[in-house]
Amino acid sequence: MTGIRYNNLINIVWYQALWFTAILGQTTYEWALALLLLVHLLLVPNWRNELKVMLACGLVGISADSMLTQFGVYVFTPEPSLGAVPLPIPFWLMTIWIGFSGTLLHSFSFFMTRPILGTAIVAVVAPFSYMAGVRFGAVGFGPEAPTAMLIIGAVWLCLMPLLGRISRVWRPDEDDAEDDTGPVFYFR
After folding, report:
1. Burial degree of 76 (CB within 10 A; 0-12, 13-18, 19+)
2. DSSP H helical segments within 71-138, as ranges?
3. Each residue of 118-145: b (16+ CB within 10 Å) or e?
4. Which of 25, 36, 39, 56 fits as disulfide partner to 29, beta carbons 3.0 to 4.6 Å?
5. Taking the chain, what is the end-to-end CA distance rounded to the nearest angstrom?
6. Residue 112 predicted with pLDDT over 90
């Protein structure tokens, strides 16, 4: 395309930019979040497969966070909406999920190659991402923070194998890979 080689470093920097834009900007920078998602799709070697992974895995994550919101684990003030349309979770959180799904075939593939280790690490680390969201004022917890973090960790313990399975469907074959980073193996 433009000669830019899309690699794991670019992917993780892109995702961190998306995460901070979402958490710090929330509804103010929804346009920038959509633009960041589009930029990602323009840079990856196979945007069609990437879009499938992002939408499928993003929907799983959005559904999980929607349920956690319905059960009172997350509290959003004001109520999530996109204009006049009510949403189960804020649009910016949806873009975080879609963006996170855009790391599964790239910078996050390390965890996909080590499913037990990756799932355990993510189950421990992911709740701290939500705690950062609380600290930045993007979300509140219904229960006490330690309880909420245990619930979030348990949900991620279930989500990671599922996200790995879904992303495996659209991973590039070794012969089709447009980069020379070597084969990537996913949950079997």
Report:
1. middle
2. 91-101, 109-113, 115-135
3. bbbebbeebbeebbebbeeebbebeeee
4. 25
5. 32
6. no
**For residue 40, is it within any domain?**
yes
Number of domains observed in the structure of the chain: 1
pTM of the model as a whole: 0.87
Domain housing 71: 8-169
Alpha-carbon gap, residue 23 to 129, rounded angstroms: 10
2 part of a folded domain:
no
CB atoms within 10 A of CB 3: 4
188-to-1, 60, 115, 165 alpha-carbon distances in Å: 32, 19, 9, 7
Tell me how long the chain is.
Answer: 188
In a domain, 68, yes or no: yes
Q: In whole angstroms, how far apart are CA 36 and each of 5, 28, 92, 101?
A: 17, 14, 12, 13
Inside any domain, residue 176: no
Instruction: Give residue-wise pLDDT tens across range 99-108.
Output: 999 999 999 8
Task: Using DSSP, state whether 142 is helix, strand or coil.
Answer: coil
Number of DSSP helices (H) and strands (E) in the chain, helices first: 7, 4
